[in-house]
Amino acid sequence: MSDTLSPLMSADLAPIFWPPSRTGVVSAWYGHVPFSHWLVANVRPKVLVELGTHNGVSYCSFCEAVARMRLPTACYAVDTWQGDEHAGFYGEEVYNDLARFNSARYASFSELLRSTFDEALPYFADNSIDLLHIDGLHTYESVKHDFESWLPKLSNRAVLLLHDTNGRERNFGAWRLFLELKQRYPAFEFLHSYGLGVVAVGANAPDAVSALCSLDESSINAVRERFAMIGECWARESTPTSDPGRIDEHTQSIKALEEEIGSLRAELANLSGLDGALTNERVRADNLEAQLSSIKAQVGSLNSELVQLSSSLDSRLAGLLSKPGNWARYDNAYHEWKKYRKKHVERREALEKIAQMYNVRAFFLLYPLYKIINPVRKLIKSLSGKDRHPQG
Predict the structure, then answer these.
(1) Rounded to two decimals, what is the model's pTM?
(2) Is the CB of residue 190 less than 8 Å from the CB of residue 224?
């Protein structure tokens, strides 16, 4: 056989081209199926555990490699099969469908553990797990907790997989944990299909994984491109053309948006009404300002009238004083004038105080207009007609 064609004939490449066994369900993991087949073939784990399984595309790819390689591996999928804020929430049909599939194909070595990740910990001995895949809730706190909780269960040749290391939306935090783990362990990352972090946690990790984690930059790009191209082909062929769950999710999103739009329209209508009310208040304020100007003008007129009356009184007093028999009349007139002047000055000062304190908008909010204008009008009327200084 030609050395040139030997790589094409290598059995080591066969797992990369095995098709996914679990198809027709929604998953972001189809793009990583070629690598999961290759990884199981090279790690040959005694115990394999997946935390977070959902429809089972990733888990079944591990099981398919175990079956094809005839490995003595015990496989366990841990999940509540109720969903979460990242995977979405779903009913019993997801678990039931996967359970039927698993029972038909992998029942001899695979078990679905329906529990939380923490509840499943006592079922595994320390230093027993050779391959751990964490794909649960993707917040940083949750992923870090899962890793730290399960770390004692990993063997000295263990390999860790972290899905969604290239996801940044919806509070995903797997990428943060992967950056931290890269500082402690040899690691490799695929960027397609939301990213997959490969971490050689065990001190005696398999040679193939250690070699993968020590590639130079050009080799890293080549490996990424080839696995991504093959994975994309499986993703196109395996993903269902329509997903009722996804359609329902979009329908709910549209409904929520429509409700929000309706709320915004109602708020806009309310603002339009407030704008009309503001316009009316501005008109009323302008009217108040006009009436205030009128009051100020009348105060000025009263001042002028008072000056004229004072001048007239001075003239009349001078005439009375020039005649000896008019002292009594002068005394009476003088006292009457003092009373009138006091009353006149008090009313004028009241008007001036009203004018000084008259802040139109604040005044309008504190008191109805009629409570101010009517008394002022009556006061002006009384000053202009009834209480003038008597003649003679």
Answers:
(1) 0.60
(2) yes
**How far, in Å, are 176, 182, 201, 259, 360 from residue 197 at the CA level?**
11, 9, 12, 40, 70
Phi, psi of 275 (to 5 degrees): -65, -40
Residue type, 61: S
Q: How many domains does the chain have?
A: 2
Tell me, what amino acid is at 144?
Answer: K
> Do residues 75 and 211 both lie within one domain?
yes
Burial of 270 from C-beta contacts in 10 A (0-12 / 13-18 / 19+): exposed
R_g of the chain computed on alpha carbons:
46
Q: Which domain holds residue 324?
A: 280-385
Is residue 109 situated within a structural domain?
A: yes
pLDDT for the residue numbered 362: 46
Q: Do 161 and 72 lie in a common domain?
A: yes
pLDDT tens-place string over residues 207-264? 999 999 999 998 999 999 999 999 888 888 877 754 555 555 555 656 666 777 777 7
Same domain, residue pair 134 and 201? yes
**Left (φ > 0), alpha (ψ -120 to 50) or beta: where does 48 sit?**
beta
Whether 391 is in a domain gets the answer no
Give 16: exposed, middle or buried? Use CB within 10 Å, 0-12, 13-18, 19+: middle
One domain for residues 230 and 153:
yes
Note whether 233 and 284 are same-domain residues: no
200 in Cβ contact with 187 (< 8 Å)? yes
Residue 109 is predicted with a pLDDT of: 97
Using DSSP's 3-state secondary structure scheme, residue 184 falls into coil
Please report the pLDDT score of residue 314 as a whole number: 63
Q: Are residues 186 and 328 in the same domain?
A: no
Residue 186, helix vs strand vs coil: coil
Q: What is the mean pLDDT of residues 354-358?
A: 63
- Residue 275 falls inside a structural domain: no
Residues 232 and 347 in one domain: no
Mean pLDDT of 62-88: 86
Residue 338, classified by CB atoms within 10 Å of its CB into exposed (0-12), middle (13-18) or buried (19+), is exposed
203 with 290, same domain: the answer is no
**Mean pLDDT along residues 87-91:** 60
Residues 299, 300, 303: CA angle, nearest 5 degrees: 90
